[in-house]
Design goal:
This protein is of the alpha+beta class. The chain contains 1 helix and 3 strands; from the N terminus they run ββαβ. The chain has one helix at residues 34-50; strands at residues 3-11, 24-31, 53-61. The longest helix is centred in the middle third of the chain and has 17 residues, at 34-50.
């Protein structure tokens, strides 16, 4: 059963000058299994936090 992951991340600036402040990056990706979703969410969360950004994540399970 496929899962779809949507996320948006924002650069909050943190006192730094950035051309991305206030701009959001949006992405959507589909996976076939829950472990794939878990791995992807962990990857994008770690990457987002390392870059000093904030994010929102939504996961939906597609019914057949």
């Amino acid at each position: 059963m496929p899962y779809t992951v949507w996320y948006e991340s924002w650069d909050i600036g943190g006192g730094r000058t950035s051309s991305n402040v206030g701009k959001a990056a949006t992405a959507r990706k589909t996976f076939e299994s829950k472990p794939e979703v878990d791995n992807y969410v962990q990857l994008i969360t770690n990457r987002t936090l390392q870059n000093g950004r904030v994010m929102s994540i939504a996961i939906s399970k597609q019914e057949d």
